[in-house]
């Protein structure tokens, strides 16, 4: 799964890393982004040729869902295109969630040791996501996950779907709505580029969001 991540790159750094025209906004560095908060999301508004970065609630619950409907933070790559809950967003409301890395926990001696995972070159990663209009008028999103690969596989069975540079444009293309067409074009980030290390258990507290030391090796 993907339940925590860090984002401390500036808006201009993200725009440069994206390699696509982007209306950037000021971002506050966050080192322990947790579900149930507003997070930075890149998407292409309907009828607009340019990309925008805006805040969306990390929790996916469409406006048409019932009061007791779930509010998942993740959607699996295996079911996101076919599930009644997600498939409309997969076809028409795909987005990218920028991150400098994410956290996973490994069971060690009866305890869970947190790890920070990121690119070896420390460039931002672009996590594939979907978004929806919520009943309260805001927008909510979910991060797509896939089976863990490379170094991430040693920590957890799942990982966020991080896309390679050539897939960012097609993923955000509103004209690409067919699952098979996307499958032929979109590629995940090369697993060889992913590295990880153990970090402090201070990350276990969601409130610790401004502590830059959370990503330091334990």
Describe the structure.
With 218 residues, this protein is mainly beta. The protein has one domain (5-215): hypothetical protein yedk fold (Alpha-Beta Complex). The protein has 4 helices and 13 strands. Strands 2, 4, 5, 6, 7, 10, 11 and 12 form an 8-stranded mixed sheet that branches. A hairpin with a 7-residue loop joins β4 and β5 (51-58). The longest helix has 8 residues, at 11-18. It is globular.
Secondary-structure topology with pairs:
Elements (H helix, E strand, L loop, with lengths): L4 E3 L3 H8 L3 E2 L6 E4 L4 E6 L7 E8 L15 E3 L10 H6 L1 E6 L1 E8 L2 E9 L5 E9 L5 E9 L10 E3 L7 H4 L7 H7 L8 E5 L20
Parallel strand pairs: 2-5, 5-11, 6-11
Antiparallel strand pairs: 1-3, 1-8, 4-5, 7-10, 8-9, 9-13, 10-11, 11-12
